[in-house]
Fold this protein.
Amino acid sequence: MNPISRRRLITTGIAAAAGASGLTAAGRLVSRYGLIPPDRCGFYGPGETLTYAAQRILTAHSLAREFPRSMISKKPFANLTAAPTDAFRRLEAGGFSNWRLTVDGMVAHPLNLSLADLRALPFSSQITEVVCEEGWSYIAEWIGTPLSEVLRAAGMLPQVRYIVYYSFEKGVWDSLDMADALHSQTLLTWGMNDGDLPVPFGGPLRMRVPRQLGYKSLKHIVHLTATDSLKKFGQGLGSVEPEYGYAWYAGI
Amino acid sequence: MPASPTNKSLPPRHTATVRVTHWLTVVCFLALLLSGGEIVISHPRFYWGEVGNVNTRPLFTLPIPSSRETVPTGYGYVMPDQNGWSRYLHFQAAWALVLTGLVYAAVGLFTGHFRKDLIPPPSQRSWRAFRGRIAQYLRRAPPDPSESRAYNILQRTAYLTVIFVLFPLVIWTGLALSPAFDSAFPAAVNLLGGRQSARTLHFFVSWALVLFLVTHIAMVALSGFTNRMRAMITGRLIESRKIEQEERS
């Protein structure tokens, strides 16, 4: 066996030192810029973290594709939803006039908004595609109040890092990082294709996150919480999906 | 007496980089194939254009049951939902495959692997050489002795196609399925004719890779399974050991 040459030893040493310091610097960078997803643990953590970090860097200011009105799907597919509870039926019978969106957590002014209050805030519309992780898709026009407007109205504190959102359906909740929560296309949607948002499509209020797959666009939204950490929510994985084996980040 | 490593020996049939990246690719590809097939089961219908769902007419439908009750398959049952881990595994294996491919491509360029081993030598860049080698296979004539240490024209063409056409295409069509990626690079999906076209193409390119895999394994089996596997695992062929023994004696 050849003895290890001095040059080789020095080169290897320098390479190892550069590698180690590179890793440390990279570690600091990723946690500073929020490139680590809450479901980073376990066997699939490395792949999930790479996907989330890469997409966060690439899509920092990008807009989801919008389509011409002529491409709106004639027969959109609503997908299955749980059978409405009696409480939901009562709200529906009242024209959802008693529907409330509560906004709490790290905000200066917690809110309790009716749909009319929401509609009084600045709103916008977009013609975007709903993309299901199963493979199907459809295009619709979505009209709603940008989540950022609601957070501004509530006086969100600067240390907030995630917005947790809850469906009327028990146990259904999710969260967004600030890149998506403050994104101009993230809408608390109350209208679809020039009408009220139908219940099968998430009415009266749906979170639309067009840069992520459909399962992040929860239906029947009733509650938002601003937080600086997801540890206290559920199993601390960022949403209920990872508890069923699905990734928290659904940009792909 | 054990062979001493100071003896003059032939270079390995495949370099260590080629062997390690080959087997990493095998593991990643099988993981992608398994998880990809699983994801297809949740919607075994394919479309062309931008949108497609159970309310639109499919381009074609796979005659298999689905893991979603919303998909009309004609089967009276619904398969269990396995998409959660399948999606995690698909993207983890994709990352591992892309990183492996980058190492392979960088080392391949640096060491001249593509130039020496894969790009056909000028003497073979003709349809005649191509047809000749096909005819030789069809006659089941034994390979030329040179083929134990170098790829023939058909192998070179197949490997170059897989490395520089099919893998880039499957990565492109896969990335086009990401709504976030498309927001940054809309051309990635628009050039393919829309999201559902990208999904259908992803499916077909995957089948082309499976076709290569099956052919590749069949050819390995026909040309001496043990010897070929030994060459791709240890780098050494039986005949190179024989030559070394002869040189020593």
